Amino acid sequence: MTTPTTTHVRPNYMLIWLYLFLMTIAEVVLAFELPFSQNVKLILLLILAVWKALLVALFFMHLKFERWRLRLIFIVPLPLAAILVTTVIMEKVW
Amino acid sequence: MTHATHSVDMMRPPVPAEPGAGVYSNKLGMWVFLASDVMFFTALIGSYVVLRFGMPSAWAAPGAVLNVPLTGLNTFLLICSSVSMVKAYAAIADGKKYFLRKVPGKTMQDGGLKFWLLITIICGAGFVGVQVYEYIKLVGHGFTPMGYREGSELAERALADPVRYGAGVAGMYGSTFFTMTGFHGFHVTCGVVSMLYLYFTKVLPEKYSAQDYRGIEVIGLYWHFVDLVWIILFTIVYLI
Q1: For A23-79, what is each residue's pLDDT tens digit?
Q2: Going by C-beta distance under 8 Å and a sequence separation of 6 or more, which residues neighbour residue B88?
Q3: Which domain holds residue B149?
Q4: SS3 sequence of B159-177
Q5: Which of A20, A71, B80, B185 has its CA 20 to 30 A from that of A59?
Q6: What ipTM did this prediction achieve?
Q7: Is B13 domain-assigned?
Q8: Which positions 59-98 of B are in contact with A (Cβ < 8 Å)?
Q9: How confident is the model at residue B58 (pLDDT cuts 50, 70, 90)?
Q10: Would you kindly state where each structural domain of chain A is located, as residue ranges?
């Protein structure tokens, strides 16, 4: 027997597209035009990149509207990925 | 209420869910594949981060070797393809199988699945085309997976300004750059080929409907993931 999955209100896709476009411009301006230190630029650029990636995952891939058990499939590799990178960095430092 | 009856601004899944994860098996399979692809790209990006920040000498400055404005344009192209993909998904969810149709009382035409998927394919193919053009230009200037080619324009510039061009680690820079962007480009190419296949075998013959559009949702998930990976790659490889 089948069960219905979630029904949700359709997001404003063009608004998400506008956010992504503006954030891409902000990234390029930040990287080449603004007089911040390299460390500040690095942090801000990573925040913008993660923010954009989240917008795509949540609204274009509809993760925001999926059930938690499906979200887990996508979320579980993320801590594993963090462990992978951290372990290699620690190996290098050690 | 049947599965097909829904208001225009509401999204419903293409078919009733199966027990277990609560989604149909094609979609579950794509999510599991994407989870494995997360690990694949993490290995690539993680290796790049470790190599880059573990090196005693600095890598080439952003924009010194790579053409950032061109790649920025390419990023915009991929973002546009992502929104056109989701518009294709929304169109078929509303049962709009057509290409373009006049909206009563408006000058604008309304795009259907055939229109939005074609836009996605064109943008995706455009992305691959620009990337191939970028590779040709880079190799022409002397930037190869082995580093700066001897006697090339870039090798001479690196000799004159070794810090800006990261002369000491050019080989590592070249190999990581071409590996990461190459694998991403391969993913985009696979996506374009898959969409072309769907376009000619399912979309044009109007085999998708508001009751069943699983193929569009599944290829859409893949396509948005490819866009998501590029958002991270663009920042890490081109801007930092």
Answers
A1: 999 999 999 888 888 889 999 999 999 999 999 999 999 999 888 888 888 888 888
A2: B113, B116, B117, B120, B216, B220
A3: 25-239
A4: HHCCCCCCHHHHHHHHHHH
A5: B185
A6: 0.88
A7: no
A8: 62-63, 68-69, 72, 75-76, 79-80, 82-83, 85-87, 90
A9: confident
A10: 13-66
